[in-house]
């Protein structure tokens, strides 16, 4: 395999020295970019874009052609796993994801198959191989999956939800059934991420978007415990290099110590935490990724630079920080503002290294 030309993202995740703080953006390939909208139109719809490795590769590289980003992230979706379990994922324009079949009983959970990464999600593995080839060592490629709890919410609700009425009712009515579902998802996610690593992913991130909706006790039992199981089951090496694992629980600030003990290499932070306080709490155990409020990108360039500078100052000197937004970039952001953000991270961080 080609040697990496820019490895500061991987180095920061392992707390090795870097010249400047690396940066990437969650949802960096997305609707705020006109070239993304054009590719999606060419594909027909979002899922056709995900299922076509050449087009998935094309959109993965679009933000890298515009900005000096330090990592690429596989273009796909977390809901490909439940789709491969037979639920029939589709996207209604402007309405978010939906499943043709929701998981609404213990019998439905028992009947769920555990997908095989190569056979049932081969289009994702092919996208990873294609992107690695086309990246040609420019920057590392991040693979990803949803957390079992986050995937379970979509599967039980049949789509997005504001209050998680059905999934939380199931958790409290029939915790054993919920555990059976989470156990199946943990197996599916472990094999899916290991497949991505075999195909060439150089780091992986677990998106626990909805872990922060749970009580303290329920988070530990129904979300974190399954992410720990996944982390323990991952092949953490590729091509003779460690493959770092990043855990991102949105609204997870309460649980940083517990997450730092999960075996992951790094934690993703949303913007509600102070990154200096987070650094003190996790100590040497993990690196941190985050944590600018994505809505700062609606503000003027000077305000964006000021906020980048403030977060860099809060983290302080030394490696172990990957700059990112605290959640995905939104469709309304001006692409020029994303550019200001990325350049500010590189420019203003040099003095901390
Ligand atoms: O970060 C990246 O650039 C990689 C691609 C990526 C997408 N989704 C592409 C996408 C990643 C990592 C995801 C993860 C994902 N998907 C999560 C976890 C992270 C998070 O944002 O909290 C979740 C919860 C999903 C499920 C999902 N997919 C939803 C709720 C939606 C609709 C949201 C919306 O903004 O309309 C999607 C669709 C989706 N996934 C889009 C993209 C670029 C927009 C689809 C489009 O082009 O219309």
From TrEMBL:
Pfam family, one: URO-D
Site keyed Transition state stabilizer: positions: 77
Pathway: Porphyrin-containing compound metabolism; protoporphyrin-IX biosynthesis; coproporphyrinogen-III from 5-aminolevulinate: step 4/4
SUPFAM superfamilies the record matches: UROD/MetE-like (SSF51726)
Gene3D superfamilies noted in UniProt: 3.20.20.210
Keyword check for Isomerase: no
Enzyme class of the recorded protein, top EC level: lyase
Uroporphyrinogen decarboxylase (URO-D) domain boundaries: 22-31, 142-158
InterPro entries: UROD/MetE-like_sf (IPR038071), Uroporphyrinogen_deCO2ase_HemE (IPR006361), Uroporphyrinogen_deCOase (IPR000257)
Binding site residues for substrate: 27-31, 77, 154, 209, 327
GO biological process: protoporphyrinogen IX biosynthetic process from glutamate
Catalytic activity: uroporphyrinogen III + 4 H(+) = coproporphyrinogen III + 4 CO2
Any one annotated GO CC term: cytosol
EC number from the UniProt entry: 4.1.1.37
GO molecular-function term, one example from the UniProt record: uroporphyrinogen decarboxylase activity
Keyword set, alphabetical order: Cytoplasm, Decarboxylase, Lyase, Porphyrin biosynthesis
Cellular localization per UniProt: Cytoplasm
Subunit (UniProt): Homodimer.
Primary role: Catalyzes the decarboxylation of four acetate groups of uroporphyrinogen-III to yield coproporphyrinogen-III.
Family: Belongs to the uroporphyrinogen decarboxylase family.
PANTHER family, sorted: METHYLTETRAHYDROFOLATE:HOMOCYSTEINE METHYLTRANSFERASE RELATED, UROPORPHYRINOGEN DECARBOXYLASE
UniProt protein name: Uroporphyrinogen decarboxylase
Originating species: Azomonas macrocytogenes
Encoding gene (name): hemE
């Amino acid at each position: 395999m080609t040697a990496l030309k820019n490895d500061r993202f991987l180095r920061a995740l392992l707390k090795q020295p870097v010249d400047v703080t690396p940066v990437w953006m969650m949802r960096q390939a997305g609707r705020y970019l006109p070239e993304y909208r054009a590719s999606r139109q060419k594909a027909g719809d979002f899922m056709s874009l995900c299922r076509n490795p050449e087009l998935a590769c094309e959109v993965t590289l679009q933000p890298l052609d515009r900005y000096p980003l330090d990592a690429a992230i596989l273009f796909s979706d977390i809901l490909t796993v439940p789709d491969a379990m037979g639920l029939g994922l589709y996207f209604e324009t402007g309405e978010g994801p939906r499943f043709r079949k929701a998981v609404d009983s213990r019998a439905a959970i028992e009947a769920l198959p555990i997908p095989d990464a190569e056979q049932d999600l081969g289009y994702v593995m092919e996208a990873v191989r294609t992107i690695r080839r086309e990246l040609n060592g420019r920057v590392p490629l991040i693979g990803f999956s949803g957390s079992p709890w986050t995937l379970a919410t979509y599967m039980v609700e049949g789509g997005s939800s504001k209050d998680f009425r059905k999934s939380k009712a199931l958790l409290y009515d029939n915790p054993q059934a919920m555990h059976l579902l989470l156990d199946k998802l943990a197996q599916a996610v472990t094999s899916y991420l290991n497949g991505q690593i075999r195909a060439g992913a150089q780091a992986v991130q677990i998106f626990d978007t909805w872990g922060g909706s749970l009580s303290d006790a329920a988070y530990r039992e129904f979300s974190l415990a399954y992410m720990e199981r996944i982390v323990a089951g991952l092949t953490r090496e590729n091509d003779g290099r460690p493959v770092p694992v990043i855990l991102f629980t949105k609204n997870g600030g309460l649980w940083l110590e517990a997450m730092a003990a999960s075996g992951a290499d790094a934690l993703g932070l949303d913007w509600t935490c102070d990154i200096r306080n987070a650094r003190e709490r996790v100590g040497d155990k993990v690196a941190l990724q985050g944590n600018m409020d994505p809505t700062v990108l609606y503000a003027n360039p000077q305000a964006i630079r000021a906020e980048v500078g403030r977060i860099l100052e809060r983290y302080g000197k030394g490696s172990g920080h990957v700059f990112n937004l605290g959640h995905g970039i939104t469709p309304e952001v001006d692409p020029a503002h994303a550019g200001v953000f990325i350049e500010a991270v590189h420019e203003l961080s040099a003095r901390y290294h």
